[in-house]
Specification:
It is built from 13 helices and 14 strands. With 411 residues, the chain is an alpha+beta fold. A nine-stranded antiparallel beta sheet has the order 1-3-2-13-12-11-10-9-8, with helices on both faces. A three-stranded mixed beta sheet has the order 6-5-14. A two-stranded antiparallel sheet has the order 4-7. Strand 12 and strand 13 form a beta hairpin. It starts with a strand and ends in a 22-residue tail after the last helix.
């Protein structure tokens, strides 16, 4: 049975959701957020729907699943109304019960952190978004037309090296679980393949882009990405559960184990918790918690991490799938009730993550399940956005194949 707890008084709607399954560096407040005294006119979250979705994820093969919603009066409110739901177990070996306080690997949600660092550098005049990557890293890429903006918006045409790396899910993972790569080794794997399109063409998701982002961060700052995440985002926002431990294989503190679903039907889940995630690094190696991710995205959309002009650049959307847009390391999803949310999805071996916030940063949701390579679970967890942001306005949805895209996985 899911545990749903509400901190600070909040009245939640109870209805049936029909689903088949201190300011940070360089920040500038958004005047539109500060000017509004009342909460955004979002419908109340639906706890019944959240419970049902998490239970559905378990029935589809996830050992555990959680969701946390933070509602703030403004994006700068440090005392949010918190709604929590959890199902199942965090560790199949010990039977430890899943809890929203557990840390987990956030996969491609890391990309938003990387983009924030680069946009802060742009705000400092140390980076131009429309400059060639080769201006900063001469000879790195085969086409000098590829710009920083192309990389951050997945329009570089660079082949995604993980397509080959994980063509066979479990053997591919075991081959890299303990390996330590350099960024240039990962990039070399991509450059063995022809580019998928011309620079600046349509959105085409590739982890290679954010390997290039990591190289840019380290070149421009002279520091490892870990130091830039910590100094620019983690410490200023007091994200106590967030860390970049690469190349260590362990998740520090209390955490959920992650279980990789093999390609073969009926095969036992593989505990993928301990790994270097060196195959992803600045594209997907951060560890965090639901509380920290909600704080991060609320701060980002509330203008605490970037000046308004740079946040606007991040939100220059290009089409990126049904009811979706992609900016610079940031995804927009348009929900059935007309609400548009911003954030990112993440998939790394053993974990699916949805971390999104409202346009003004006042309501944030992080939901995760401790499994991966399971399309049914992934589609079910997508439904948590509807329950969190649409409530009773949610239209009946069918989690049919293809309703949740797979191209944003870090696997």
């Amino acid at each position: 049975m899911a545990s749903l707890r509400t901190c600070r008084s909040a009245v939640l709607g109870s209805l049936v959701l029909a689903l088949a399954a201190g300011p940070a560096h360089g920040a500038g407040h958004r005047p539109d957020v500060l000017a509004a005294a009342a909460p955004a006119a979002l419908p109340a979250p639906d706890p019944v729907a959240l419970d049902g979705l998490l239970r559905a994820a378990l029935s589809q093969g996830a050992p555990g699943a959680t969701a946390r919603i933070d509602d703030r009066r403004t994006a700068h409110d440090d005392h949010a109304t918190v709604h929590k739901a959890a199902e199942g177990v965090a560790d199949l070996g010990t039977g430890e019960v899943m809890d929203t306080a557990h840390r987990f690997r956030i996969g491609s949600v890391t990309k938003t952190f990387s983009a924030v660092v680069l946009l802060q550098l742009a705000a400092e005049g140390r980076l131009r978004l429309d400059a060639s990557v080769d201006h900063y890293l001469p000879g790195l890429l085969p086409d000098e037309r590829i710009t920083v903006r192309h990389v951050l918006s997945h329009r570089s045409g660079l082949y995604d090296y993980t397509d080959d790396m994980f063509a066979r899910t479990v053997p591919g993972f075991e081959a890299v679980r303990s390996r330590v790569f350099t960024y240039r080794e990962l990039l070399a794997r991509s450059l063995q393949h022809p580019r998928t399109q011309a620079p600046g063409a349509a959105y085409s998701y590739s982890n290679t882009n954010f390997v290039v982002a990591g190289l840019l961060i380290e070149k421009l700052t002279g520091h490892p990405v870990r130091a830039e995440y910590e100094n620019r985002v983690i410490r200023p926002l007091r994200l106590a559960d967030t860390s970049y431990v690469h190349p260590s294989t362990r998740i520090p503190g209390r955490h959920a184990h992650g279980y990789l679903t093999p390609d073969e039907a009926g095969a036992a889940l593989v505990d993928a918790t301990d790994q270097t995630v060196s195959w992803a690094q600045s594209a997907g190696a951060l560890i965090s918690s639901a509380r920290d991710l909600n704080t991060f995205f609320s701060a980002l959309l509330g203008g605490r991490l970037l000046p308004a002009a740079r946040l606007a650049e991040m939100e220059r959307w290009i089409p990126a799938g049904t009811d979706q847009g992609y900016g610079l390391g940031l995804r927009r999803r348009d929900l059935s009730c007309g609400v548009s949310v911003r954030g990112h999805t993440g998939a790394v071996q053993g974990y699916y993550t949805y971390a999104f916030t409202s346009e003004d940063g006042r309501r944030s949701l992080t939901a995760f399940a401790n499994t991966s390579n399971n399309g049914a679970v992934h589609r079910t967890m997508l439904g948590t956005l509807e329950a969190a942001f649409c409530g009773k306005r949610t239209k009946a949805l069918l989690a049919a194949p293809g309703t949740a895209e797979a191209d944003d996985f870090s696997e």
